[in-house]
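Sample intake sheet
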Amino acid sequence: MKKQHTEARKSSKQGRKAKATHADAMLVNHEGRTDEELFLDYRETEDSLVFTELVSRYQRELFNYLRRFLGDAAKAEDVFQQTFLQVHVKSELFQSGRKFRPWLYTIATHQAIDHQRRNKRHRRLSLDQSQRSSGEEVGTLMEVVASQESGPL
């Protein structure tokens, strides 16, 4: 019984090692390849390792661009994810012979603009920030709501 358990553990370790070696080999193969080559390969194979390599190549640079554009790290993270979702969804629209980076940044910029439009429709007001009405200071939203005065009607 002990011998079977030892052999099973050995087999399991060899399986994990083989998978890791395959993953390492795939990553090594990506090092000398251009973004365009990787993306065209991804478009044909939908290999998640290839897509992961593209994301990792642009993660810091694109995230920083989006953070500056949107002024908020959480929004930048959301738009970053949406951008790569669109890269996947629209992969067939990428034209061979074009550069990947400008195409990616165009998608990212459009996603950021769309995000800003959606947020303008759902603008949030602070309950503690002083509000103005017709150029006149009316106090915080909490003060306005709590006041005993009748409304504008």
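Comment: Strands lie at 130-133, 136-140. The helical segments are 2-30, 35-45, 48-70, 73-89, 100-121, 141-146.
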